[in-house]
Sequence to fold (158 residues):
Amino acid sequence: MTRARAFVALGSNLGDRQRNLDEAARRIGGLEGTRVVAVAPVLETEALLPPLDPTPQPGFLNTVAEVETALEPLPLLRALKQLEADMGRVVTTRWAPRLIDLDLVLYGDRVLATEELTLPHPGLPARRFVLEPLLALAPGLVHPTLGTPLCELLSRVR
Fold:
């Protein structure tokens, strides 16, 4: 069975945020053919606000989980979205507060662009709350399409 190295960003800004992250990481490790190798230190950040509704929101706790998985990218993404629903996430509008948010940000060096999934995650180069924990797990990573070390991308968003 071929296993891939993937990175999943986890975020929560509703309820017991730390418990939500811990539970999500536990459940990710329970996915078929998947194990969590490591979880980065948690980072607290302000919520990104939608341009049309800048109503303040609670801050986020964010982290990244490194996983080894036998699942291909789309089945992994679908399993992550099912985990969100199982944990009680209700999808409303973009950038709305959320109990749990799971994003597949990297899947090896795989590059993919479908209606359902883009790899690497298109927001990765501009998101300190993903880059910082990701680099804590894998400091030598290079962005698969930009060819830029992630540490350089992080220095640009600080």
